[in-house]
Records
---
Amino acid sequence: MITKRLNKVYFLGIGGIGMSSLARYLNTAGTDVSGYDKTQTVLTNKLVDEGIAIHYEDLPENIPIDVDLVVYTPAIPSDLKEFIRIKELGLPLLKRSELLEKISSDHRTLAVAGTHGKTTVSTMLAHIMYQSKAGCTAFLGGISKNYSSNLLLNNKSEFMVTEADEFDRSFLRLHPTLAIITSADADHLDIYGSHEELLDSFAQFASKVKEDGILLIKSGLKLKLPERRTYYYSITGNADFSIKDLKLIDGFYNFTIQTPQGEIRGLKPDLPGLFNVENALAAASAAWLSGASTEEIVQSINNFKGVRRRFDRIINRPDFLYIDDYAHHPEELRACLTAVRKLYSLKKITGIFQPHLYTRTRDFANEFAESLSMLDTLILLDIYPARELPIEGVSSKMLLDITPLDSKMLLSKHEVLEYLHNNKPEILLTLGAGDIDQLVPKIEKIFT
């Protein structure tokens, strides 16, 4: 195992959701872990509480030069002074995906890929397997509300569940025993250039599945698949795994899953929205194919509490509902808003959206405008740049201007809080993948 050879590891961008789970894994194994991140967050504070030293200034003198390995995320800027110095020193260097490849090579890996849906599906699948007799270790792309962590550990289990991230083609490092592909909508065009190139990359990921492994694909995806044992799932049509007896009861769906060899009955997850029925179908199907029993699947799905920032109901009162969601792609926004509209058709919905990346805003401006027009009131924050420099003519003001709504405004974070002090929506959503989550506790305080 790689952990036996690593006494000291340094993480560049340790506060990222994927990086932090790897840091936790090594720290739990007894490795001396430390790292840098540009922003102090709730997650970095948790890592510090767990004994990991973190600093927030880009200072090369903070680099521990006696490390066995430096791990970095491709999301860090290439001109980061610490990154430049690490390369000058010739320290051993791996991308996050390369370290995950080495760790997962010792396991039967269940990998979940897709431009959206993968975090909820992988977290739900991990919960089922972790609670089953087989057990699992899991690296998650979000914080599981069942465990308040993005890492599950079972050193006795041969199974490992992980997200397979298409950003920077990271998922091509994995060699899964079973792979799920939930979606392949156009995204990350700054990396891929075109939707066709993205689809080709998903096909390459499918070919990474071991020859005796399994592919589980959402029906309707137009992918060139390799010769593998392949199953399809669908909530709307005929497939190897499908939904039966779907009923909406008190705002939540009850249903049965038809498998190739019988039914899984009595499913009623505490998660609203048809998209979560589809997520549950994918997770349950993968668990069934991996040997989990019907009883284990039903029990785990029905007590699954969800993932933070995935349709996360922060306040749920008869007079006021506040949901926080990670949606940062037009299709994710559409799925989230469709679910809210179906459940609360008579109420006015206010959404605070923080666009993520200049390139994504530019590439999907019209699609964003169409999805955001499902709101009654839109509040836009400035674009969260992440790793990018500004692009001339691309701004939240541009997006605001093309969104066909009468009630819309562009506000700073401070102005948002002032607005909410003076205006109480019936339903409030915070949406986006940047640092909008830092507003959540402040908004919660206003309304509680």
---
Amino acid sequence: MHIIVALFITGIIIGAIYLVAGKQIEENISLINMVAIEAGEAPEEREIKLETSANNKKELDVYPSYGSQYATIQIPKIDVDLPVYLGDTIEILKKGVGHYSASYFPGEGGSIVYMGHNSAKVFRRFSELQIGNEIFVKTSYGDFKYKIYDMQIIDESEGDEKIPIQHDEEKLMVYTCYPFINIGYTSKRFVVYANLEQ
């Protein structure tokens, strides 16, 4: 009898949730289905080109698919040579460096945000970097050189303020968890800021 009552109450709760948020749930499921790739199905990648738009801004003619590698990042000072993937999920960061998808791409003239783990294979040696060191991003549509002008330790809650998306100047911001020897969650980030070198 208790099981029947529990099932009845659960049904009422689920029905109420669906009545209140049903449309939003359906829209979210529809959106997920639009971007999802079925297992074993590889997206067809087109050649990416950097073009000048009608409003005289540079932008990619086609963007990489989410989760795909589109570049490599090289930081000679600390022997970094890693793949860059569009996105910042845990699975992506296990493979290399993630590109925050709401930021610009190299060459587009705005803020680019990359992140990676503080592991020995990724950004553990960030403490060795100095102002003036170079960062190279190599893509299929061009190679870009950036020069470090600042480094900061920030709290993760300061992300919007300290890692801002700017639209009028190309800056590369790369961050990792801090302290570097920490394993697991930490609320601090070490951010490297670099300007595009012309």
---
Amino acid sequence: MTPPETDSPVDRFDTMVDGWFDRLRGTEPADRILYALTELGDFGLIWVLLAFLRGLRSAEDERAAWRFAAALAAESVIINGVIKTQFKRERPVVQEPRPHRMRIPLTTSFPSGHSSTAMVAGILLSQRSSRPTRIALFGLGGLVAASRIHVRIHHASDVVGGVTVGLALGAIARRVWPLYRDR
């Protein structure tokens, strides 16, 4: 381990945020909730479920759900197949046992795919949504992103990077291939 004075600003940021999460780790219901959120975020599951639940309303919403699933697949290819291969950052090292079971990803750490997917989902699913629904979508996305730090699968800077990339990809997707054709 390097002395703190030689750590980069990113390392100091990651250490500081990790310390904030140490106050919650090992407590219930925080562990149970945040581990569940991280699992629901695997493969964009929570977002695809929400899109297809909304797809039950009408044929137009069903088409939008399929477009959404395709957009998330493209986002995953960009994050996991392109961006992560450029950075090859190692994930945090965890010495102690985890309080709940979870899938350990095979990809590298930067940027967080869960965080990116959450922001893409927030942008795309907020199209034609009420303000309270938009707030709920981004709030849930923020919790999924934060869960990745809590469960020690990502550094805080990975999550910030994922949120940033996800907001950009979501904005591009909404402009280039919106879920709904404007009336």
